[in-house]
Design goal:
The complex is a heterodimer of chains A (795) and B (106). Chain A is an alpha/beta fold and 795 residues long. In chain A, 58% of the residues lie in helices and 10% in strands. Chain A is built from 26 helices and 14 strands. Classes of the chains: A alpha/beta (795), B mainly alpha (106). Chains A and B meet through helix 3, helix 4, helix 10 and helix 15 of A and helix 1, helix 2 and helix 3 of B.
């Protein structure tokens, strides 16, 4: 298999030989599906859907097809061992990766509980077959010698025992591989084929048996029963994930993986329908009990009880098949749940103990122990086997829902940078349909087992607690760019502050002057930041060697700030990208403004101002001021284009302290594309005056000598916005422009008009992006993730 | 995930190939709609049949639907592969080279 043994943490990365052809990989998928799920769940599901179980299986085939298309697309484009978990981890933001792992761990562990319980039931049935024990009271009690015990206690005790055995086997490092695994796979498929063939022979020999399909009712519990059966048996349809998991070993994976996904379903879905057909059609209960109810009463043993009636050596063959299937499934789920939790521990998504490897056996013993504890506690504390099955189904359904979301983001972000072997048709509607269907099935399972949902919610709530109390902090600690030097850093994060990133002290005067003007509007702190950048190929720790180079830069800048009457706080960080370090500082220090220098139009056509500034504008919750050219402050003539009169006061408020000379003035320029009526013009002028009166009154209060120093002028023009601003700016010392809203409109403005004007004007320029509310910012960040395309240039 | 991660995983196309390939599905959409409608009809007939003959006719139809949709999908995979090579040829890029991650490293 593509997966390495979990304990092989120190093994060098290896690539596997691609020797699985289309037939092989299709059979891998078939073997993963036709197994313990169908043995254990058919009887239980028949009890829900009745004879319409055949419809439930067909509908599950349709629901599965939708997600299978998504798997075919992603499995062909990213044929890596991680499969669904990997795609969710890679395609979705923030906590999704944690929850994908957290749910995957639980789903595999609870599936292990289900198979352990299934094994225990079949083991008791086998012992009963040989007469060593005797069922009593309709299967509620067991007579063992002269003692009578509750069957459920015996089954749970045996289930715990077999779970412990497989925890130990996994601890020793053994796994189901090679010949033994193939024999089990072939054996169970042959047994199911014999079961179907025998059932069909029985039906054709006595067609009257088919009465049980409609007498007394085909769907005794209606559509609700069918949907419940679909939810319960979903776990038996999700095996095609194994196909993509084996992607690294497949010849021509872009062709063979999608084909194998569809071919496996083509084989498996009719097999399941035939199992449903013979289970209901070939069984005779011998009394008035409808067949479906008889199967439902037999629960996880339904298939074995049915085989007794029409299959030569039916019971024993079915029992052997079921025992082998459940045992191999238990082994696989113990292994996979351990592997998921181990990976989460290693990725620091769970406490470090999960990532520990035993020194002798080289297995992740603590992850195994905790996964084993989870398997055992679920099978002990969840009362019935159908509750256990429902809990596993709900988790897998939610995981598959995430995969359907992930395909939307991966296609959006990486587009044609990946080589797809198959592209989901009717994109994005089919994945969205997949999301709806999976989620609906999960909801339907509440009807079957409320307790399964309570357990699920409890598990997710526990996960949320761990994530927000521990993992978020860890992620932050790991992702944040390290601080190498900090001096006189402000203590109060809430205090107003202006951040000035410094690269070269010779060009910092403009930025400090702007920072001083901003601090004139509200007293606060000046924070100077120098970022030591390290190439991607080198670890961040290398940056420590360059701290001594940063010292003179910071000292000189600090001296300049002090000359201007400010007391600077200083920070030196190291990171691969300056923007990340600046964003980290904004978040940590709660900076209200960032003042940055800009040399001119970016050469990268995909950025507006430049990759660093664009990133800071997009990803930080701070006001951003970008300065280009030799800005002399205080300025005499400041031009402030205003897109909408009601936003005028925001930028005019910032401009006011920058024009403190007696003769200085600020012109608010409002350019409209079409001719205004006199009334419209008057209305807009009034709106602008209102904005100015607010700013002017504020500014006037701060003037101590009693003179009004700011003179605002209003200009309303008709014409091309860009050209009008460019021409008008020739008469001014400073052009201040920007957007006041943090939404897609902001991006439009920055990307269109602002960029065009910035390109064409010669005078000193100040671009201002004023932030919105925190909630609005967080919401826009969330949607931004889905909207963004990955544009990184790979060197 | 970043492009860097994808490149390290060996699944990223060469940068000169970005923008070359069409992202429209090669699945025959009219045929797919027809198959889906046929599958839907099969399920409805199975249910409406109430366990009698019609149910099994619906069941048979459903198996045909599964085969049909598999045929459409497998064909789409072949068309997609051919189209991919054509796009490479048209752009004079990496013609006949194995796709990223498909080199046999045994």
């Amino acid at each position: 298999m593509a997966q390495q043994q979990a304990g092989d943490t120190y093994a060098p990365p290896t690539q596997l030989s691609r020797d699985l052809g289309l037939f092989d990989i299709t059979m891998v998928g078939v073997a993963a599906m036709v197994g313990a799920g169908i043995f254990v769940l058919t009887g239980i599901a028949a009890g829900e859907a009745g004879p319409a179980l055949i419809v439930a299986f067909a509908l599950n085939g349709v629901v599965t097809l939708v997600t299978a298309m998504v798997y075919a697309e992603l499995g062909s484009a990213i044929p890596e061992a991680g499969g669904g978990y990997l795609w969710v981890r890679q395609g979705l933001p923030g906590s999704n990766a944690f929850f994908a792992g957290w749910m995957s761990w639980f789903a595999h562990a609870v599936a292990g509980s289900l198979y352990a319980l299934g094994f225990a039931s079949y083991l008791v049935e086998t012992v009963a077959f040989f007469g060593a024990v005797e069922w009593m009271d309709g299967g509620e009690l067991l007579r063992v010698g002269s003692a009578v015990v509750a069957a459920s206690i015996v089954k749970k005790g045996l289930a715990v025992l077999i779970a412990v055995v497989f925890i130990y086997i996994n601890f020793r490092g053994a796994s189901e591989t090679g010949m033994a695994g193939n024999i089990v796979t072939m054996g169970k498929i042959i047994i199911i084929a014999l079961f179907i063939a025998s059932g069909l022979v029985a039906i054709f020999g006595d067609p009257e048996r088919m009465r049980s399909f409609y007498d007394p009712s085909f769907a005794p519990r209606g559509l609700a029963g069918i949907f419940s059966a679909m939810g319960l048996t979903f776990i038996a349809f999700e095996g095609y994930e194994i196909i993509v998991q084996a992607g690294e070993e497949v010849e021509s994976p872009r062709r063979n993986i999608p084909k194998a996904v569809f071919l496996a379903l083509l084989i498996v879905v009719p097999i399941y329908m035939l199992v449903a057909l013979v289970c209901v059609g070939a069984v005779q209960t011998g009394d008035a009990t409808p067949t479906w109810q008889w199967l439902g009463n037999a629960g996880e043993l339904g298939l074995a009880r049915a085989a007794e009636q029409f299959m030569p050596l039916g019971s024993i063959l079915l029992l052997i098949g079921a025992l082998f299937s459940t045992v191999s499934a238990l082994n696989a789920t113990t292994y996979s749940s351990t592997r998921v939790s181990f990976a989460m521990g290693r990725d620091r998504n769970l406490p470090d103990v999960f990532g520990a490897v035993h020194p002798r056996t080289r297995t992740p013993h603590l992850a195994l122990l905790l996964s084993g504890a989870l398997i055992i506690s679920m099978l002990v504390f969840i009362p019935h086997i159908h509750d256990v099955a429902a809990a596993a189904d709900i988790m897998f359904l939610l995981l598959f829902t995430q995969v359907n979301v992930a395909v939307l983001t991966i296609r959006q972000k990486y587009g044609d940078k990946l080589a797809y072997g198959y592209l989901t048709p009717f994109f994005p509607y089919l994945p969205i349909l997949g999301i709806v269907l999976k989620f609906a099935l999960a909801i339907v399972l509440f009807r079957v087992s409320p307790i399964a949902w309570y357990v699920t919610i409890g598990w997710l709530a526990g996960g949320a607690g761990i994530y927000y109390l521990s993992v978020v902090q860890r992620e932050r600690e790991e992702e944040v760019t390290p601080v190498l030097v900090e001096e006189r850093l402000k203590v109060d994060r809430e205090r107003f502050s202006v951040l000035v990133p410094v690269a070269n002290p010779k060009t910092v005067d403009n930025l400090l002057a702007v920072a001083k003007s901003i601090l004139a509007t509200e007293p606060g702190e000046l924070i100077l930041l120098h970022v030591i950048t390290v190439p991607d190929q080198l670890p961040v720790s290398v940056g420590r060697d360059f701290v001594s180079d940063a010292r003179p830069i910071m000292d000189e800048t600090a001296r300049k700030a002090e000359d201007m009457g400010m007391t600077p706080n200083m920070l030196v960080r190291v990171g691969h990208r300056p923007a990340d370090a600046i964003i980290d500082t904004i978040e940590e220090q709660g900076c209200n403004f960032v003042v940055m220098g800009w040399r001119g139009r970016s050469t990268d056509p995909r950025t507006v101002v430049g990759s660093n500034i664009d990133k800071i504008v997009k990803e930080s919750h701070s006001n951003v001021v970008v300065v280009r050219g030799d800005v002399k402050l205080p300025a005499s003539r400041i031009l402030v284009p205003v897109q909408h009169p009601r936003h005028g006061h925001l930028i005019a408020g910032l401009a006011a302290p920058m024009a403190q000379d007696e003769e200085a003035y600020i012109e608010l320029m409002h350019v409209v594309g079409e001719e205004l009526t006199p009334r419209e013009r008057a209305e807009r002028a009034a709106a602008l005056k209102e904005a100015i009166s607010f700013v002017d009154a504020e500014a006037a209060e701060g003037v101590t000598d009693g003179r009004r120093t700011q003179r605002f002028r209003i200009r309303i023009e008709t014409g091309d916005v860009t050209q009008s601003i460019v021409e008008r700016s020739r008469n001014f010392d400073l052009l201040m422009m920007g957007a006041s809203r943090e939404s897609w409109i902001r991006r439009k403005v920055w990307g269109d008009k602002t960029a065009r004007v910035a390109e064409q004007v010669d005078c000193p320029l100040m671009l201002v992006n004023l932030r919105g509310g925190r909630l609005k910012f967080n919401v826009s960040q969330f949607f931004q993730f889905f909207w963004d395309t990955e544009e990184e240039i790979v060197p | 995930m970043s492009l860097k991660d994808l490149r390290e995983a060996g699944v990223l196309l060469p940068q000169d190939e970005w923008g070359v390939h069409d992202l429209h599905t090669s699945v025959n959409k009219p045929m797919l709609i027809a198959a889906l409608l046929f599958g839907l009809a099969a399920v409805v007939i199975m249910y409406v049949g109430g366990g009698r003959m019609l149910t099994f006719v619906g069941g048979l139809m459903f198996v045909v639907f599964m085969a049909w949709i598999t045929h459409i999908s497998v064909k789409a995979v072949n068309v997609q592969a051919a189209q991919f090579e054509e796009e490479r040829e048209a752009a004079h890029l990496h013609e006949g080279e194995p796709l990223p991650g498909e080199e046999n490293t045994s």
